[in-house]
Amino acid sequence: MARSVPPRLKFQILPKIRNLSTPEGPLGRIKQLQKLVGAIIQYERIESQWSRADEARGYVERLIQEAVQNGPNHKPTMELANYWLVDKDLVHKLFKVLVPRFQNYTRAYTSMFPLPLKMPGRVNYKAVLELKGNAYPHVVPHHHDNHHTLLNQLLSAANDEYRQQKLAEKLSALNISMAQFGDEDKATGDAYSGAEEDGKGRTAADDNEEAAGGSPDKTTTAA
Amino acid sequence: MAASIALARQITRVNINNTKICRLSTVCTDGAFCNASLKRYSDVAPSRSDPEPDVVESHNETLSNAQAHYRYIFPEILPNPDSTRRNKVCEMLERNDMMNRRSVLEIPEFYVGSILAVTASDKYAAGNTSRFVGICIDRGGCGLRAWFILRNVIDDQGIEIMYEMYSPMIREIQMLKLEKRLDESLLYLRDAPNEYSTFDFDMAEVPHVAGDHVPINPLKVKLRSRPWLERYERQDLKGVEDLGLAQKFYDRAKQLATPWEKYDIMKQYRATVTAEDQDEVFRDIHEKQQQIEQARIVRRRRKKLQSNR
Lengths: 223, 309
Fold this sequence. Notes:
Chain A: Belongs to the bacterial ribosomal protein bL17 family. Chain A: It comes from Priapulus caudatus. The complex is a heterodimer of chains A (223) and B (309). Chain A has 223 residues and is mainly alpha-helical. In chain A, helix 1 packs across helix 2 and helix 2 packs antiparallel against helix 3. Chain A is elongated and about 90 Å long. Chain B is globular, with a radius of gyration of 20 Å. Chain B has 309 residues and is of the alpha+beta class. In chain B, strand 4 and strand 5 form a beta hairpin.
């Protein structure tokens, strides 16, 4: 029972292997990679040197790929898992936890992020390597744009209304009507933050810009 | 026989261990000198000495069984697995050239260990052709640069000719005996007694039913005593008998062995053309290959009819 032709890996690999620095030569390299592969399967997120993490990433991906493709009853795959995972509990984790998780993945099973350099100091490129679908918070926080949801739209409308009201109160205290102050700026927060003279100045400037063909700045703030 | 000696005379000749190794040098279609790389086929997962599986493990539902067999039939159609040497356009052009050549010249399925007869153009031979019979001891190369080496012993003189498979000088390739041996390379026959690589030029064709399993010859070769051309004790050969060396040789071989490479999945990956790329190649040539096979069947029938009359 030979292993079948491997499918393409879903991330960029170097055309040649890296010789990781070790006094034991090629076998030492494999031993280091065994440690890293075990750690990734166990902890699901590790921090390491960039080169080592990148090297280990290929092995982890290939191991999971084989496990997903062939399952635990395929003898060569089991041998492979047995070789790369020194802690035998991880063999169970690979076939019982990770294989179901990655069964329908069409993209890479791992992701890697560069870490910032510590300056001043030795230049040591570091990386975070993680299995996808882990329980930790995201490495790079990603912000969702909730601007257009109904709740946020209602809240922003309420906010605008409140500011308008406040402005009107302030103006009435100074005996200036809203009509005199100008229609354009009454809804914006900018007008509220500025004093009376500033507000007037801005209105005049905006009028001029509109006459010239509209201001791009204003459209963006309105959007 | 004399013709083959004449052929051997006209081309480069190296005398290694009483073996004349010849090289049929030709000019490639792109005009460059075809310097066949000494790189063998990578471990494209199924080792060629492995028995062919009953049902080829198809990685892709759409890839038919026939297409999946192409990697056994003509492994040289796959591109170089080294990603720095890949060029999609060049590969496509070469594939077209190869299929065009195959539509004219019938290149049979063969393996290391098969016995072949090659007829090649030779302006110094009588009738301008020379026929050489021998056992394929090695093959390799990708695309138009694919090559194989035939070996025979003629008048107690070992003769080897490296043929470039798509060379325009080749007129005919005849399969005399389709079989595999226990090893992927039989270069150790150079250090074996002559009887292991002596084949009759008038050898009758051993019939092989298309679609049958390719038989594996379990012959174990008894090598001559040292000195050898290579350190065979370090090569983990299956097709040789006990080498009869002093213990220190085996100790050193054990020191230098790399048993972890069996598990080095990324090394194997880098030496393999991926499943997606293989599918693309096989799907590309499938139609042309069907046409070639049809034409071959028609040609054979016509030949049979003519011989019956």
